[in-house]
Amino acid sequence: MRYTCRVVLFLFTCLLGSSGHLVAGEYDGIGHVELKKMIDQDLREFVLVDARNPEEYKEAHIPGAINIPEKEFSRFTGLLPSNKNSMLIFYCNGVKCGKSNKSAKKALELGYAKILVYAEGMPVWEEMGYSFYKGTGYEKRIETTKLSPQELNILMKTGNENIQVVDVRDKEEFTEGHIPGSVNLPLGEFALGSDMLDKKKSIIVYCNSGGRSYGAYRKLMRLGYKNIYQAIFADWKEQGLPVSL
């Protein structure tokens, strides 16, 4: 689906979330607020491209997006508009997903002049509560890999350089007491703040009883993290393990 409108260029540049300009041979970025406005207000002709793999696209995608997997970009260039002055907007799975940037560079090489990357991607779009397409298996419950308090305590003592422990509760709860060495990234802004998470490390998410950490676990999966674990703060405290204020 393509969105069209006959507004002048300066209206578009006012909506850009970064430098507010496009230069031939380069591409710029756009945030979720600006992209939402462009979709809702139909501000100009553009093609929204989901650069993820087909399975991810079928599970969930932004309304109106077409799927051109980055690894198979050359096979699907026929889906792109013939007019090289058409605007293309690429997205994938968040700020640490490189598919949208790689696709944008490939589009530049093909001669497209107006390219934007929505780096926050599908996870932030969902987190913001915007509407999106959901496949039949989207709501299917997943099984998380859980760590007991003892396992987490040993892991933190022996493999501290290779793990990142994340408290996904609210900031007020974190300040009242948390697992020593953990960082705070509340569930409601988890995807938006995911640039602080190291994809090379094992990520352990926890909350008081498991609900919010389950949500964070799912977000990590959609952000492309591979080594993910879940822990429960109530169990940690029950075992008499240390708590930092």
**What is the name of the CATH superfamily of the largest domain?**
Rhodanese-like domain
CATH architect. name of the largest domain:
3-Layer(aba) Sandwich
Major beta sheet summary: 6 strands, mixed
**SSE order in H/E notation?**
EHEHEHEEEHEHEHEHEEHEH
Rg calc: 20 Å
Output the CATH topology of the largest domain.
Oxidized Rhodanese, domain 1
Through-space gap between termini: 51 Å
Task: Kindly provide the name of the CATH class of the largest domain.
Answer: Alpha Beta
Number of domains: 2
The amount of helix comes to 25-40%
Query: What structural class do helix, strand and pairing data support?
Result: alpha/beta
- Please work out how many helical segments DSSP would assign: 9
Strand tally is 12
Integer average pLDDT: 88
Question: Low-confidence parts lasting 5 or more residues at pLDDT below 50?
Answer: 1-24
Morphology: elongated
Q: Tell me what portion of residues adopts beta-strand conformation.
A: 15-25%
Question: How would you summarize the topology of this molecule?
Answer:
Elements lengths: L1 E5 L2 H5 L14 E2 L2 H10 L2 E7 L3 H6 E2 L4 E2 L19 E5 L7 H11 L4 E5 L2 H7 L5 E2 L14 H10 L4 E5 L3 H6 L6 E2 L17 E6 L3 H12 L5 E5 H6 L7
Parallel strand pairs: 2-7, 3-5, 3-6, 6-7, 9-10, 9-11, 11-12
Antiparallel strand pairs: 1-3, 4-8
